[in-house]
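Posting this for the archive.
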Amino acid sequence: MTLIHVCISSRANQLLRWQQAFPDGKIRSSLELLQSSGQGKIVVWVHADSLSPGTLPETIGRLAARQDVHRVVVISSVPTVQETAAALAAGATGYCHALATPELFSKIAMVVSNGGFWVGEEFLSQLAGNISQALPPAEMQPEPTVLESLSKREREVALQVQMGASNKEIASALDITERTVKAHLGSIFQKLDIRNRLQLSLLISQEPS
């Protein structure tokens, strides 16, 4: 399947990195100018900054309803958890920073094009925390079984993630740098054969008592 990348934005000067990632991509100033070429499915990137306030969900909904649109991804220069949730609820499959690197834009395109979702760390942290709170509480255990393969510091980081803490909050709570937090998370994901903090939170929360 041939994928065509199109960005809906009236501020092309803010999309230099996106254009580097997709040199053959097109930028259209409005939804009305989005036309199917009939040569493949379209991945539409919606530049939230260029839309009128409150119109993002409607725009995503209109795009998601089109037969020629394969996926919808929202990009924003000021990402928020609230906007992420609203975008996903409206039908988007991705949400990222407008200043992401060209390499990251390409990675996001690959993930969503293959049926996956892409959202920021802050949203994942909050979602993981909400899931943790929604699940029935297990009996208090100092070290859940799933964490036994981890070092003491990695267990501390993992439990912070389960409570919905961001990397910055974990670094502050454990008196380490954010870079060290990321290193611990990488090691945790590898040891537990998982890919993100949401899976980690679920893994810990669903431990049998």
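The longest strand covers residues 69-76. Residues 139-143 have pLDDT under 50 and may be disordered.
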